[in-house]
Design brief:
single chain
Length: about 110
């Protein structure tokens, strides 16, 4: 095992513990916890068995395993960004509705 693999494995274990702690303290929901747990476990497996990326690259018709990881990472980042934007828009709409409700409920003070 090379030093980089060792460092990645240690880092992922720390992140997994932190994620579990956040779930235990109800800071993240169950679906969010399961998503991050699955993601970090996949990364942990790839850190232990980097030859899997080469196998995956062959299946997908890509030359190198690193390219597969980069492509999947970029797609994942865009998907997560999309989800965040959707959630922010929903929060914005909810805040607007609350402000409207409060402004109609309370008389203006001059």
């Amino acid at each position: 095992m090379v030093l980089l693999q060792f460092l990645i494995i240690i880092l992922i274990i720390i992140i997994l513990v932190k994620t579990a702690d956040n779930f235990r303290k109800n800071k993240i929901s169950l679906p969010t916890f399961l998503f991050w747990l699955a993601l970090w476990l996949i990364i942990l497996v790839v850190a232990f068995f980097p030859q899997l990326t080469g196998f995956l690259a062959e299946l997908l018709g890509v030359r190198r395993g690193v390219d597969v990881i980069i492509y999947l990472s970029i797609i994942s980042i865009f998907f997560i960004l999309f989800r965040i934007i959707i959630r922010l828009e929903k929060i914005k709409q909810e805040i607007t509705e609350i402000v409207r409700h409060l402004s109609l409920k309370e008389p203006r003070k001059k």
